[in-house]
Design brief:
It is a single chain. The protein has 260 residues and is of the alpha/beta class. It has two domains: 9-88, CRISPR-associated endonuclease Cas1, N-terminal domain (Ribosomal Protein L15, Chain: K, domain 2), CATH 3.100.10.20; 95-259. It is 53% helix and 15% strand. It contains eleven helices and eight strands. It has helices spanning 59-68, 95-103, 108-130, 137-141, 143-155, 160-182, 185-188, 197-206, 209-214, 225-235, 237-259; strands at residues 9-13, 18-23, 29-33, 36-41, 46-52, 56-57, 72-75, 81-85. The strands form two sheets. The protein has a four-stranded mixed β-sheet. A four-stranded mixed β-sheet has the order 4-3-2-6. Strand 3 and strand 4 (36-41) form a beta hairpin. Helix 3 packs parallel to helix 8 (197-206) and helix 6 (160-182) packs across helix 8 (197-206). The longest helix has 23 residues, at 108-130.
Amino acid sequence: MLLPASHVRPLYIQSPAVRRLDLDAARRLRVERSHQPDVHIPLHHVSRIVCSANIDVAFEVVIACMQGGIPIVLTDKSGDTVGWCIGQRRKETTLKQLLIHALDDPAWEALYNPWFDNQKKAVAAQVLMFCAVQGSAKARRNPRAALCNAHQKKFGQACTLWVDQYASLGKQALVAALEKEIGDPALLAWRRPGLNLMEDLGSIIGLHAHTDIHHAQQLPAPEKAQAWAVRLHEAHMAHWQQRIAYLMVAFEQFLRSHWL
């Protein structure tokens, strides 16, 4: 599949018809295809490249993308990630700078609210599926209630305490990652009236707690919930890192699509 970019957006190059990714004389990406015209795409229109590992990628493309802060993701036949190539990051396109531009834009709320709602719905649908909860209209409207009901049926008791303890650890890990990347807490909370990105994004990442809770064999006594949640979080650390990475990439891509 090939999606030429008219604005800043990901470029997916996974069609078997694509033979090589190179640079042309104007330093644009040139996608060479069998029995079809080449496609030329300016580098500044590309936020990242997702490329099948069997496509010939010129070394000049790798260097240009590293210098331009454009990650290259290599995937296998099944679409799983084989590896990343990540170069330097330009100061003016860091997540912090993008967020500053975004939060100063009067159009922020009109653009952010639909993105946030869609992200939360997408993660909720995924978690409902992982927990074998039927994705009814009622469940989609209130996924937390549907998930808690599913936990209660499995364990024979209300599970809010354990879910909240466990979800808080995922939220803390997300906030730490955001703080490390952005380095300015004021951007993450109350830069705009009523906005707290740590709470918003934390509510999305916290939904993943239901998956691990639902697949636990048993729940400990309430007084042991916190220690148990820490052990469970450590056991699923790789999953949490992946969940946080996906959300941060989605958030950065949202910012890049409007304010780069």
